[in-house]
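Collaboration report, partner site 2.

Our partner group contributed sequences for two proteins of shared interest, and the home lab folded both. The records are reproduced in the order in which they were received, starting with the first partner submission.
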Amino acid sequence: MALIIDLKPEEKILIGSAVLTNDKQRTRLHISGDTPILREKDVMQEDDAVTPCKKVYFLIQCMYLARNPREYHPKYFELLRMIQSAVPSTALYFARINSNIVEGHYYKALREARDLISHEEEILAASGVDISNPQ
């Protein structure tokens, strides 16, 4: 079964290592095969990974797009240990993320990482920490 993606005018999509930019009209793509696909809205640039959990998302994104995802595992697991030590309430999120990573389901791990980022934002908001301007 093909993946069907509707692209807005001028929306970008990453397929494998290629970035495709839609023209000025809506487009529907039917994609078959097993290659990493990310919509522009799901891509995090390294400069935007300004919190620990956003760095986790970025590392999982790198795993998803890499030919050898395991090269990112040491950095990921080091960051995981640091975050869980500081914020034990992240354990359930990491359990779901890790399960997907171990099974090689990196896109599913990315979706779980979005929930982790939301949890982080709730914690930071409750503590009064402003991350809107990290510089």
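Second partner submission, folded after the first:
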Amino acid sequence: MIKVGMNLLLWSDDANFAQHKGLLDFCKEVGFDGVEFNVGIVSDPGECQLFGAYAKELGLDVTTVGTFNPSVANPVSPDPVLRAAVYPAFKEFVDNTLRLGGTLICGPLYQGLGYFSGARPTEQEWAWSLETMKPCFQYAEDHGVTVALEPLNRFETYLINTCADGVRYVQELDLPNVGLLVDTMHSNIEELDVAAAYKAALPYIRHVHISENDRGIPGTGHACGKEIFDVFTQGGYNGYLTIEAFNLGAPSLTGALHLWRSFAPSDDDLARRGHDHIRNMLK
């Protein structure tokens, strides 16, 4: 059964239980089946356990998203120190996912977010990424966690921009717990035919982000049309369609994601309208 989720990055990139507990109540009231936490920034791992227990109490599933700060850890860096820093960083992502009660982590977990060499990606960088990430993803497998790798647009990453490149990477990894996350906003930029790209990649897709072409309210632009939902409803997809949208609530990502304006009258309005759009498309 397809479920509908909400990424809490809309409101905060470092959720605090005392301050943000009510977001879970809100998501439950709106009708979401699950919530998605950012484990790229966690000030206090104990917060994850509090959120996880409360999500379970409300009957909300949990997924997570993580990104690497390229100045701290980067799988494609020519600096072996930055590559070596990836494993402990990713291990903490997985450990916090487990603390939250989640079994799926997604994101561009093949290079540092916003890192560019100034040239096209090389086979050496590809090899570095595979070599660096394989033991990380094996750690996730050992702990029952699925990894969904996200192709991003050319302005945020350069190693993997298309579904086809994502499939190639997953095939070369050859790990049973690793697949793809596809995001409609990124695909809107990089794919010539988004629905066709998703159909071709469907056997590898483990998670989906519904994100409008401007990162605002799903259904108000041209990236979240019915043809996209038909791929999943007609193709036997059995996972989450999770809204990833922004309204200047995630300051650590403002520069990397080029978020220079508001995208909705309010965060809550964005979430409600996005949820209703997805439910209507699934009917």
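Feedback sent to the partner group on the second submission included the following. The mean pLDDT is 96. Strands lie at 3-7, 34-38, 61-65, 104-107, 146-149, 178-183, 205-210, 240-243.
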